[in-house]
Specification:
176 residues, mainly alpha, two-stranded antiparallel sheet, 2 strands, 6% strand
């Protein structure tokens, strides 16, 4: 039997709620949208690049967003001492590029686990919770958790646009 990405009951964005409910709801909607774009595809289809010369794939996006979840929510906002999910020493885009031998089932499980861990890591933090993000030049930016939510919504929305085009190339499926 051929492995296929699982189907998903996609959550819908909230229409009414306080700020945190709206931010979390929109982020969940975009998280689910990425999974929806992958649903029903085989491992080989998930490894199919968009169009030359790009190497961008749906599997790469799943891996990338798992690492981004870990980076912004757990490592930065919550201050957890964790390594990244992938080895970037030889390739700064290893999450996106090192997919030839990547196990799609593992990548999807990792994304789901990182989403849950991200939720748990910031559940008790206020949107006004601040942290510092060091820069390569030795300076640091002060940020708050609100910024992380807005950035993550933007990150998923941008990559969901990529996912739309990749999915259409794979099997012609379009739509939100």
């Amino acid at each position: 039997m051929t492995w296929r990405a699982p189907e998903i009951d996609r959550s819908h964005e909230p229409y009414i709620g306080d700020e945190r409910t709206m931010l979390e709801g929109w982020l969940d909607y975009h998280r689910d949208t990425l999974l929806h774009k992958c649903a029903g595809l085989t491992a080989e289809q998930l490894r199919t690049a968009s169009v030359e010369p790009s190497t961008l794939t749906l599997l790469g996006l799943v891996r990338h967003l798992a690492d981004v979840e870990r980076w912004w929510f757990r490592i930065r906002a919550a201050g957890e001492d964790l390594p990244g999910l992938y080895d970037y020493t030889e390739d700064p885009d290893a999450d996106l590029n090192a997919i030839a031998d990547a196990d799609p089932a593992e990548a999807f499980a990792t994304l789901r686990a990182e989403i849950e861990a991200a939720r748990n890591a910031v559940a008790g933090l206020s949107l006004d919770h601040t942290f510092r993000r060091p820069r390569r030049d030795g300076t640091a930016d002060e940020m708050n958790l609100r910024w992380v939510y807005v950035h993550m919504i933007e990150e998923y929305a941008r990559h969901n646009g990529h996912a739309d085009l990749i999915r259409e190339r794979i099997d012609g499926v379009t739509g939100d």
